[in-house]
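note to self: dont lose this again. the chain is below, predicted strucutre after it. 500 aa total, dont forget to put it in the shared folder this time
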Amino acid sequence: MALKRPMRKGPERVMARTSLFLLVIFLALASESGSATSTNVPVGSPIYDGLERLEVKGLLGGGILTTKPISRGEVARLAREAEKLIKDGAREAGPLSIVESLRRELSFEMSRGGDNLGGGFYLKTSYRDGRASFASINDNGYVPEDGAGLRGGAVLRGGLYDTASLYLNPEYRLDEERSEIELLHGYAVINIGNLELLIGRDSIWWGPGRHGGLIMTNNAKPFDMVKVSSQRHFILPWAFKYLGVLRPAIFLARLEEERDYPHANLLGMRVDLKPAPYLQAGLSRVIMFGGEGRKALTPSDWAKVFIASDGAEHADSPINGNQIIALDLSYVYVNRNRYIPFAGVKLYTEWGAEDSSGNTKTPSGRANIYGMYMDEPFRQSGVDLRVEWANTARSARYGPYWYTHGVYTSGYTHEGRVIGHHMGGDSRDLFLRLQYHMPRATLGVEADIERSGVHSTPDDKRWLGFDVSYDGDGLDLRGNVGFEDSPGNVFIGLGIAREF
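---
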């Protein structure tokens, strides 16, 4: 494969200005005051489903949900704001059950803020027969083996004088092929003004997609990283106030040893903007660089990397790295007209470009996601519907290059799993999910149609899944069953979790 040239011209200017903008923001944040520190709600937690339901009901006007994880303290703050709107009569009382569920999960933070000494444990058992590969997507890199499997983990979290918090999540895995203990998540969080510094291992999800994202998801294993972000969203002074509320984040992660360039580095940057309660935008960028066997970047090299000033003619240069940029937008409409057959809808999209090549310097890889999340379709109380379409096979020219690179031949992966959308490059995916919510239980049915290798060797997969969850007083029960392509390829899962 020919080495590709990264983006120039328009995308180059966007990258340079975005990097400078982030630097200014972080310098300003360090001088702001913050609140008590707290650990994060893990990516993939059902808590985020509850927050999105509140958002589409018009109860999270100032909340930013497209950069995950979100701290427990911030989730509690958003829940308190939604609760106040409901009790003040600004919104109907129906969503109060969602807030009550969040209060049960975050009782200490809802009442006092910060982190207390707490935690819990969970136990998951599963059975997989045949293909059933959809059972392993967006699960922190975990891939179940055929036959029966068991996973059990403990969670310990605690705070220190409202300025630091610690989170530990070891997990034990048992099946026919392995018996191992792994630290799934483990990190320390420190507050510096309104800046939050995280050091350790955690997952990241960027973008409004629920089934996948173009740049960052929890499809791969959590990263060992250093991350700096704003503890809570904020508004810049002067004319910048028209940008609305902002939330920036930047991280530096070290990838695994078993790849083409061992311990390559991944630098990620993102800024969220919310100029209006119903409109949100996010800009993300990642750079894969370095690793054993590659030259170190000098200060002048870094300047060139940040403005994407490398190309195929620099094949042996350390600045020839793998770069991806994406822009996402979401719009929420809360319906007040009884003749329109839904209570609210969230429309979202994400557009990405990867590297560039040729005399025109156009991106060699393009991808996009379109999604719709509808509240109470046909006015059915407690029901929501999601439709999400993802495409990394835009054309024969652009499709095969997404998540690949001429130097980093291991691709955009971590521990063998795609860091972005689980379907990988040169693929298309249609996801549908219907849910029915009761005060303490949720029933869900979902379907997925995926085609990979669109411009090489097409491979079609179809998934049909059913799930049920029960939210008790500190005790959560979950079960699911799914079939891939045929009833013979089945996955069955049961789980129990206890908070204390």
